[in-house]
User: What shape does this take?
Amino acid sequence: MSAERLHEVGPAQQAPPVPPTSRAPIDSRPPGPPGRPPEDLLGPPAAWRDRISGLVTRVILLGLVAAIAVWAAFPLIEAEAWVGLGVLVATTVGLFYLYLTRRHVPAKYLVPGTLFLIAFQILPVLYTASTAFSNFGDGHRGSKQDAIVAIQSSSVVQVPGSAEYVLTIASTGDPSTGPLVFLITDPATGQISVGDGSGLEVLDAADATVNAAGKVTAARGYTILNIGQASARSTEITSLTVPTAARAIRSNGLSRAYEGQATRRYDAGCDCVTDTTSNHVWTAANSDGSFVDSEGGRLPQGWRVNVGFRNFATVLTDPNVAGPFLGTFLWNLAFAVGSVFVTFALGVAIALALNSERLRGKAAYRILLVLPYAMPSFAMLLVWRDMFNTDFGLINKLFGLDVDWLGGPWSARFAVILVQLWLGYPYMFLVATGALQAIPKEMNEAAEVDGASPWQRFRQVTLPLLLVALSPLLIASFAFNFNNFNAIYLTTEGGPFPADNPSVGATDLLITYTYRIAFGAAGAQYGLAAAISIFIFIIVATISAVSFRRTRALEEVY
Amino acid sequence: MRIRTAGVVAAFALALAASGCGGGKPAPASSTPQATGKLVIWADDKRAAVLKPFADKFGKDNGVTVTVQAISKDQQTTFVTASQQGSGPDVMVGAHDWIGNLVQNGAIDPVQLTDAQKGGFPEVALKAVTFNGQLYGVPYALENIALIRNTDLAPNAPATIEDLVAAGKALKTAGRATEIMALQTGQNGDVYHLYPLYTSGGGYLFGAKPNGDLDPKDLGVGKPGSIAALTKIQALGEKGDGALKRSIGGDNSIATFTSKKTAFLVSGPWAITDIKKAGIKYDITPVPGFAGGQTAQPFVGVQSFFVAAKGKNKALAQEFVTNYVTSPDLAVALYQAEPRPPALVAALERVRASDPDLAKFLEAGSKGQPMPAIPEMATIWDPLGKAEAAIIGGANVQTTVDAAAKAISGQIK
Assistant: This one.
């Protein structure tokens, strides 16, 4: 149904309900949209019921909107994402305005769909596109600041030969707000010191009580924090370092402390990281998001940067990616077309057979035929993979064969199409059955009277009419199978792989191949994966657009 | 009526404000410091269930709230992504070979153990959790593969792989078995299970730097040692002895053994439950190497506790991981949930008497190598596995290994 029609039908069917308090004076009625039936035409009880139920629905839905908005607002405020908060407030206010005013009736119908379209289609596409221009992936996830923090904090080592101390967390004031101090017991000497950000001071032994493990249980002038109280101030404890003569004492958990030092330090002046023990220097390569040294070595912790068109260039020029692209693309096309064709052929054939009026027990046949569709395809794909096993598989055993089904390129391709056929024909059977019943019997009868053979009747009458109804489904099925990741990944994983090229296999689709490039080796490379998926999107979109245009031509003819 | 509408709007505004207060209350409360701290632990389903009582006890003893959340799939990716967004846990439980990737993503912090605590672990466990000279996890369980033998079919442990093949062939001829052995390969290879044979034949993956760290620039795949090893492996393959087959993969190798089709299975502690269920008498010995070859070294995997770098309660997480996890009680309980040898020597001593398999698995792993934890290891699995599968199927060794080496080195940055 077109939007226009919706518009026409809408207001009449569902006149915006009026609050119950509005029963009174006629003069206060706002100018309603033209053509709206006057409220008084509805009998008083019916009008009341409509108004009340409309009001209740509106209260519930808008209440939900408000609840979601409030729920979403707190994280945004906490993250100080003011732009996001602005969008949220504007959307919520807009929604409230729209559904509380009596104007903008078409918008009332269009806005929810548009919002969902933006949230679930447009934003993900934009996000993918923006990712494609970055080096986002393992080792390049966060900001440069994150990377520097990670480099420095992972370089903290215990000073060789230094003592391990027993730590007690205490405060000079209130346990939850007062200034924190570390009470540090040296296990060798039993000496207790008090440390804070300014340094370490020896505590008089008479002022403190110590248990057998060296933990201070009471100290004059200090409140000892128990683990619960201390862990509530975890961040302060972790960041508190007590400077000593040469290094600093840090907490390790809540009951131990050690003398440690960060061996790598970032210097903003040279934009580089220096190792204090070896004086090795890694300079920031801001276009790559890594710290690199003069020999080409790099620190594992990098950051996310914009790399422009580099990912797209990789897809087009890297021999590992671009080399097998054409071959994979052709097989991908063949796989998608083949899957649709065989399932459609078998589905229609069975639908025609079961459409015959002479057949008895149709319901039973139909239930049996739909069974493969009712089973979870995940499990079925794995079962099929095992059935194709050379030595232990059902197929070889049943037919007494010794075929290495998934080991040879053509037998593996045949096998995956066969699996597709088994999984897919019930769907085609179902939709074809429905479409067949919609074709008027008179047409076939007329053709029969004209002397057409059964094949001619099928070819000239039934099939074209079926195609009119089913073409959009076939195109959708094509687009789905073009990216049918599970069908390949759960059966052959893209294999068999030629001995001289482990990167692309005989049954690889572009999507399984992309997956392996993006996530299989060298960790996750979301940027590259996003770039390849944009290419795949363009391919599928082009093919689908062309097919739809052809379909429209088909509809005009018949 | 416009006025009335305004009234309704006002009512809605009030309702909104009311619902705002109602919905908003918990949020500010949780963001302000509470009297007690909170510790969040992530583990896979099985371990989460085992950890729960211990975490609760830790919480009760110390007056903190400990939540154990089960992450059933893709634990590593989920952890990295959640950490990045600031919604990750304080403590993560996982395998030691994640360390390289977790470190490069800034997801975990080093842990500081005392010398006494370090002394409680075998050296291989500590070596496994060490990355760039830092200790990043506290080990709790070790795992490695071994040769599991049906003692009814094969009473004596084979000293070499050649002995094993001879014994397997004899059983096949006698009609008592249909396969020589079950070592999972699959269509795409299995680097992990073939590693003992690969090392025995002279192959290695990464060379070592002078300080003992692995050197990703010294790639062993493609070197003469790897060619020699894979040539020997090919002789065991489909065109040779038929001991290694692509039709035996992860999904059917244990089943092949438990249905008595073969006398030999190369697998880990996880296979024992099924074998016991099948009522097979078995023994566990190290995976044998080639006659006159080098020692067959399995990978040793170490399950560990990690302190999340972006956790909200790092001090408590460090306390839990370094002081509580290092107690043998927890290690014993984790062992009882899933029989993998505990990493703590003290815990191992306690369970060793009741479970003879443990000592045998440990013995089989005693000469093993910790699985490389450097991020570059991710580039190895796929190409080398496929090369191994192709070679077992009869492909030319030299060209196949060269292609794999090229694919791997192309990925190492």
Observations:
- The domain at 157-262 of chain A is CATH 2.40.430 (Periplasmic binding protein-like II).
- Residues 44-78 of chain A form the longest helix (35 residues).
